[in-house]
Amino acid sequence: MRRRKPRLAKRLKLRRRKFPTRPRPSVLPAKPSKPKTAYQDEFQTGVGRKVEDFGKKFEGKGRTILYGLAAVAVLATLLGIFYAWNRRSDAAAQTALGKAIETSQARVSDSPAPAGFVGKIYKTDRERSEAAITEFQAVADKYGNPAKEKARYFIAVNRLKLDRAAAIPELEELSKSNGEIGTLSKFALAQAKTDDNKLDEAAAIYQELAALSNPILAKDTINFELAKIYEKQGKNPEAADLYFNIAKAASEAKDLDGKPVPMSQTAREAKEKLEKLNPAKAKEIVEPEEASPTDVRRIDM
């Protein structure tokens, strides 16, 4: 028996139809586009020309400009590093300088250190000065100004106890500088001249310091030392005038509230010396009364 083909396949074959192909649309030639009009005013034209001229001047120099900009960036970086290092260096210099100052002011005693004592103890002033000079010299060798200049000042002051002939030229050199170190060096130099009985030279230095408008040292301290030189020179009236001015100003000083201020130790000593040189003039000075502990300021509510 013959096998029959499935009816479904026969039906699908009969339904196949051919459709006519659609004609392709014709392509029309493109119309020539009109050039767009660019609008530019006179200002824009002038700026454009200047930019072009500027560009032509630097044509072929791009690498040089980049190198210049790179150099500026490197310089800024180096400056930043320097300032950061400078802050750290200043802190380290001040720490080292402070330790050297502590050594120069350490205790001098033959007795052993008491229980619980932490600081340094030296048997003699010479031993302490030698140790201090060593530490100050290390600061001067390692760090720059202002720490170096301060260290040199302390070296000269401590050297006065060991070798005055070498210390005085060092103070004279430092006294030529401006600022705190110059002023302090002059004062130390005047004291050294006084000890060496070079009273005229010492008086001249004190007079120079007293004439400064804003001295580092108190004027009362300077004038008190100058008055002592006048006494040694037999110039008692000049000395008495200085002692009187010191004590009188201190006795009349008042605080911001208008209350009397206690006299300083220098003013009290000046009055005592004035009492010996000119007792009548000393009576003109009335010391302010000290406030009692029970004196309480009234506050108005």
Description:
- Residues 34-48 and 296-301 have low confidence and may be disordered.
- Helix 3 (62-104) packs parallel to helix 5 (147-159), helix 4 runs antiparallel to helix 5 (147-159) and helix 5 packs parallel to helix 7 (180-195).
- Helices cover 61% and strands 1% of the residues.
- It is globular.
- It starts with 6 loop residues before the first helix and ends in a 19-residue tail after the last helix.
- The chain is mainly α.
- It is built from 12 helices and 2 strands, in the order H-H-H-E-E-H-H-H-H-H-H-H-H-H.
- The chain has a two-stranded parallel ribbon.
- The protein has a domain at 231-289.
What descriptive keywords fit this protein?
globular, 12 helices, 2 strands, two-stranded parallel sheet, disordered C terminus, 301 residues, 1% strand
